[in-house]
Each structure stands twice: as C-alpha cells, then as structure tokens.
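Subject: LysR family transcriptional regulator

B.,
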Amino acid sequence: MNLSIAATPSPRLDARDLELVLALVRGGTLAEGGRLLGQDLSTVFRALKRLEQRLGLTLFERGRSGLVPGELALALAKSAEAVEDELDRADALLRPGERRLAGTLRVTTTDTMLIGLLLPLVAEFRALFPLLTLDFIADNQLASLSRREADVAIRATTKPPEHLVGARLGPIRSALWAHRSLLPAPPAVPDPSTLAWVSPDADESLADHLSVRWRRRVYPQVQPALRCNSILAVAQAVRCGAGVGVAPRFLLQDQPGLVALTGDEPALDTELWLLTHPDVRHLRRIKVFFDFVRERLVLP
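Prediction pasted inline below.
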C-alpha cells in the first residue's frame, strides 16, 4: 500500500497584498496607510491582520510612533514599487502624449531647504506631473531612506552617507546677517560681538551646527540673546531685527534692509545633496524628480 501526503500549499500574495504593505511602509501608521489607500483605519487594520495570519508571519512591529516594518515587509515593499513602476511604464505607452506618472513621492529635508529651495519649484513640477503626490517631511531629524520612511533626501552635508546614491547640487554658502536698524551709522564699522545674537542651538540636533561651531571659535565671548530650534527661525528673527545670526545666502540674500557682516567664510560653507537608496533609484518618479531638481534648482 502506497501512502502519499499532500504538501500544504504555500500562501500566495496578490497585488492587493503588495499594495497594502507598500502603503503601510510608506505611511508608517495604519491611519496614514489607509489615507494612501483611500480606506479607513479599521479596514486597513483588518486587512493587515488577515494577511499576517495567512502568512503566519509578523510583517510590522507595533510601536508608540506607528508601524515598524520588518525585513520581509521592506522586501515586499520593494517588489511592490517595482510593480508600480512597471504599471507606470505601461500606462505611458498607452498615453504617449500625456504625463501620466502617478503615485506618491516622499521627500525628507529640513524646513530651511523646504521653504527656501523646494517650494518655489513645486508649482512647475506639479504642472508637469499632476498625478504624482508629493509628501514633504520637514524636520531636523531626517527620515530614514533605508527603512522606507522617505524616498528621497535633500541634505546639507560634505559627507553624504556611503549607503546612499545621488547627486551634488552645489555649495550652500552662509553669512552673518544683521538688519540695518541694529547697525551704527556709516562709516562706523559694527563689532558683531557687541550685538545681540540669534542662534539655532536650542535644539540638540543643531548644537553642533557649523554656524554654532564657527561662532564659538570666532566670537567665544558671545552668549546668544535668542535661541531657536531651526535655521529658518534664525533667518526670520534676523529679518525682523531681533538680532544678528548666521543663515544661508539663499534665504536672506537681496532681502531689503539686511546686510551681510561677513564675506566669503569657508568655515560656514557646506554642500547640498540629493540622495536616494540604491534599491529604488530606478523608479520613474524618483528619476523625474532627480532630473527636475538638478535642472531647476539654483544656489546663490
């Protein structure tokens, strides 16, 4: 007598499973994943629970701040992005005369670069790709590309992370600025150390900012009168005459009433980089964003 035992078939994934995992990896929470899918939170919760039960695996750890994808979830999200990209390509073949690129592009940067450099370009980019949704994540703590918290990072650094790929957009030059109302009448030359200073070192992430290091080295006796938690806030305070402070030229150059108290200061210079993870650099939405930013963004 011959006995045979049928093997239990492995669970299979379908397109909706991949779409769910990708939305949750991108969104980071059930609510945000539901928003990306056009579904409510409870529907997404039940769908994830069913999928994990069917697979017999945990795809996401539940944390205080949301969902933390495991290695399998990240791998599935990568596959889902490849499918999404191929669908975009196929759609473009059907409509060769239209800009049909769709989906979501998540960009992590600081509020300084978002306000000063990126938002002025958004209207033109949206006109070219009206179906592509842009999610900007503006924070001093930049979202992780490796964990798929964002697709693209725009960072001020002279040493971009080795595990990322991208393009150098140019130098970011800064100066020490003051409003004319704070300065003595010409021909008197102001001594910056006698003026009130605005500094970004109210935030731990900015305590070692190059402008803070420069001030401590060049003007060690200065104690800031006003401390903020962003370079954008420093620039706005200087613009309002609240004190002198270091800010990028792209924010304050040619602003009425403002004077640069320093010329070229290499110690205040850094570089602007456009970065992404090697696993997703082939995606069309990332390619078109890279090409657009490299062509349109101009640094003074």
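The chain has a mean pLDDT of 87.

T.
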